[in-house]
TrEMBL record, chain B:
<dbReference type="InterPro" id="IPR029061">
    <property type="entry name" value="THDP-binding"/>
</dbReference>
<feature type="region of interest" description="Disordered">
    <location>
        <begin position="334"/>
        <end position="369"/>
    </location>
</feature>
<dbReference type="InterPro" id="IPR005475">
    <property type="entry name" value="Transketolase-like_Pyr-bd"/>
</dbReference>
<dbReference type="Pfam" id="PF02780">
    <property type="entry name" value="Transketolase_C"/>
</dbReference>
<keyword id="KW-0560">Oxidoreductase</keyword>
<keyword id="KW-0786">Thiamine pyrophosphate</keyword>
<protein>
    <submittedName>
        <fullName>Alpha-ketoacid dehydrogenase subunit beta</fullName>
    </submittedName>
</protein>
<feature type="domain" description="Transketolase-like pyrimidine-binding">
    <location>
        <begin position="4"/>
        <end position="187"/>
    </location>
</feature>
<dbReference type="GO" id="GO:0016491">
    <property type="term" value="F:oxidoreductase activity"/>
</dbReference>
<dbReference type="InterPro" id="IPR033248">
    <property type="entry name" value="Transketolase_C"/>
</dbReference>
<dbReference type="InterPro" id="IPR009014">
    <property type="entry name" value="Transketo_C/PFOR_II"/>
</dbReference>
<dbReference type="Pfam" id="PF02779">
    <property type="entry name" value="Transket_pyr"/>
</dbReference>
<dbReference type="GO" id="GO:0000287">
    <property type="term" value="F:magnesium ion binding"/>
</dbReference>
Length: 348, 369
């Protein structure tokens, strides 16, 4: 494998990259099991196989930078540094969840790390990221905003409205296309005209394609360039990262047709981003195998702790269903005490 | 006190909000050139004193591309990250272009993220009904948004309310949709030029009366007042109550007003089915049924799209004649046989109101459906 990305990042940063990729992998592996055992209601969409793309992008951002995501939702906040316990509790629907059990897997958000929310609507969070960029511009606070979206969302109109607005206003926004090559079962090339990265030039912004999205440093380098451009006031960028999801679109999904052939899958499995980076770290003498083994064991414990955190967290009280609809009142819809949906008794 | 038009009061409130808080920005199509009349100065010229662009600059007065979805979505995102945008969406019929952002982002983000998100953004739009603009510009879509928990809905009917409610809207940490009726744009009254705020969820008794209550929304309010004026010589005393905000709704105020007379007409320019009038009628029936002396009657726009021709459009909306007829019907009295053709039913838009009678009246109340 060629080695195009610079390998000169601080050692701690590189180890943190591996740690966060492992967190995503082990967290999602555990979540997948819990879905199948009925311990997580509904389903989840894992980022297994896409960890380099997620972490490379997240770690190119600063702590106070903003980020929005999509239904493949756990990797983004984990990649941005969110603690695992409240994320796991959210997947289970517990009161200790990062969204108090009101969002679930599809709608994770951890504002403390700049995660402004994942979105169950394909492409729906892209305009939110543009708005976060607008805030940064108006308030001149030097913050950058990044929108994660898939190859499927690349064909939503709101992306192009957003790219145009961000372009014409020179907003500090990065449009990051996670091209895992399938919109559920639909191969991207069958529904996508031209190359997604090329669409950047139509809006006067750089459009970069990271062919090796399994290399966390390659992704980090491309996104860092976009972040630098954004912070310099030069406006938005489009970065398309080619990657692959190892699991089914969602956990537990059983389709009659296998839309991905075995050879393709095997090729991508052989390019596991976590294995590749581990080998790379050892080869370059950044870390010893034992050290990385210890890191892996550490992350497994973190995931165990996250599940324990979730287990000990109670389910929310029913009254919580009426909280946080509005800022100023639990029952702001109708001010009358006995209105049809103003009291808890009425919905029981 | 100063005499202000409805539109002038909105402009005054926007200017106050811009001066009071640097986080307030105005975003929308054609706001630089003050095309819709709420971002201008004293004169017509862009360079005139007080022009918003000149006063606040392009960083805070943002002319947008025609991209409603990202205008709305970016305003939400900006609100979640420190700004307090006022978005001018011009025509209410254009809100549908951004429906996903209103419903799935604006309304849900605080709730869905467990209270982490604050979404202090105001979306203003004008309902151009009654002005022969045809079906793509004439909608009164507030009931659709009443059906979306998480949004606040404001429908000012007077200049003073428009100013005070808009200031409250900008202060509110939730998404607020302000629906402004163009038929009210030119209406004028004495308005306090100092800063003041009108709380949400507190209706206003516009006119007191003892025989019947008309609960009127938005552009139907002045029509209800005119109907009350027309009924007074017949010895019928009508209270007119304007809820002013539909979410939150002043249910107590509405119920009290309804119970005071026991004869209730609800006048609402929106469509009949699942409209604001439907919700208000249901609340009255649920909660003060015993105080009613007859069925609650609705005067709404019937469930048809808005035709272009003035011959067709005018009589579809709740007007003073239809409202007065509904009040008489609720009291079981007949209309006087003379005087109707002679009464001055000039609409607030300056055109003559066509008094529907007989079959026409049935259409205007939606009862023909």
């Amino acid at each position: 494998m060629t080695d195009p990305a610079p390998r000169s990042l601080p050692r701690d940063t590189q180890l943190e990259m591996q740690r966060r990729m492992l967190r995503i992998r082990r967290f999602d592996e555990r979540a997948s099991k819990m879905v199948k055992r009925g311990q997580i209601p509904g389903t989840v969409h894992t980022s297994i196989g896409q960890e380099a793309q997620v972490v490379g992008a997240c770690m190119a951002l600063g702590d106070t930078d903003f980020m929005t995501g999509n239904h493949r939702s756990h990797g983004h906040p984990i990649g941005k540094g969110a603690p695992l316990g409240p994320l796991m509790a959210e997947l289970v629907g517990k009161s200790g969840g990062v969204c108090q059990g009101k969002g679930g897997s599809l709608h994770l958000a951890d504002f403390a790390v700049g995660s402004l929310g994942e979105s169950g609507i394909v492409g729906g969070s892209i305009p939110i990221a543009v708005g976060a960029g607008l805030s940064s511009k108006v308030l001149a606070n030097d913050r950058v905003s990044l929108a994660f979206f898939g190859d499927g969302a690349a064909n939503q109109g709101c992306l192009y409205e957003g790219m145009n607005m961000a372009g014409v206003w020179k907003l500090p926004v990065i449009f990051l296309c996670e091209n895992n090559q399938y919109a559920l079962s639909t191969p991207a090339h069958t529904v996508t005209s031209g190359v997604i990265a090329d669409r950047g030039s139509g809006f006067g912004m750089p459009g970069v394609r990271v062919e090796n999205g399994q290399d966390v440093l390659a992704v980090h380098e491309a996104v860092s360039a976009a972040v630098q451009r954004a912070r310099a006031g030069d406006g938005p960028s489009l970065v398309e990262v080619i990657t692959y999801r190892y699991n089914e679109h969602s956990e537990g999904l059983r389709l009659g047709v296998d839309y991905r052939n075995a050879q393709e899958k095997a090729q991508w499995l052989a390019r596991d981003p976590i294995v590749l980076f581990r080998e790379d770290l050892i080869r370059r003498g950044v870390a010893a195998a034992e050290e990385l083994d210890a890191l892996e064991a550490d992350v497994l414990r973190e995931v165990d702790d996250a599940v324990a955190f979730s287990d000990q967290s109670p389910y929310p009280e029913l009254s919580v269903a009426f909280d946080d609809l509005y800022s100023d009142s639990r029952f702001a819809v109708h001010r009358f005490r006995d209105s049809s949906f103003g009291t808890l008794e009425a919905v029981r | 006190m100063t005499v202000m038009s409805y539109l002038g009061a909105i402009g005054a409130a926007q200017k106050e909000a811009m001066l009071a808080d640097e986080r307030v920005v105005i975003i929308g199509e054609d706001v630089e050139a003050n095309v819709y009349g709420t971002t201008g100065g004293a004169g017509k010229s862009r360079a005139s004193e007080g022009d918003f662009l000149q006063q606040f600059g392009r960083n805070r007065i943002r002319n947008t591309p025609i991209s409603e979805e990202v205008i709305v979505g970016a305003a939400i995102g900006a609100a979640m990250t420190g700004l307090r945008p006022i978005v001018d969406l011009s025509y209410s019929s254009f809100l549908y272009m951004a429906m996903d952002q209103f419903v799935n982002q604006a309304a849900k983000n605080r709730y869905m993220f467990g209270g982490q998100a604050s979404v202090p953004v105001v979306f203003r739009s004008a309902m151009f009904y009654g002005l022969n603009t045809g079906a793509h510009h004439s909608d009164r879509p507030y009931p659709m948004f009443m059906n979306v928990p998480g949004l606040k809905i404001v429908t000012p009917a007077f200049p003073s309310d428009a100013k005070g409610l808009l200031r409250t809207a900008v202060d509110t940490d939730d998404p607020v949709l302000v629906f402004e009726a163009c038929v009210l744009w030119g209406s004028k009254e004495e308005v306090d030029e100092r800063e003041y705020r009108i709380p949400f969820g507190v209706g206003r008794s516009v006119r007191t009366g003892t025989d019947a209550t008309v609960i009127a929304v938005s552009g139907a309010v002045p029509e209800a007042v005119a109907a009350a004026d027309a009924l007074a010589p017949e010895g019928i005393s009508v209270e007119v109550f304007d809820p002013r905000t539909l979410v939150p709704l002043d249910v107590e105020g509405i119920l009290d007003a309804a119970a005071r007379t026991g004869r209730v007409v609800v006048a609402d320019p929106a469509h009949r089915t699942c409209g604001a009038a439907a919700e208000i009628s249901a609340l009255i029936s649920e909660h003060v049924f015993d105080a009613l002396r007859g069925p609650v009657r609705r005067v709404t726009t019937p469930d048809v799209q808005i035709p272009f021709s003035p011959a067709l459009e005018k009589q579809l909306y709740p007007n003073r004649v239809a409202i007065a007829d509904a009040v008489r019907a609720s009291l079981g009295v007949a209309a006087p046989t003379t005087g109707r053709d002679g009464d001055d039913s000039t609409g607030p838009d300056g055109s003559g109101g066509t008094p529907p009678s007989g079959q026409d009246a049935a259409v205007a109340t939606g009862a023909a459906r």
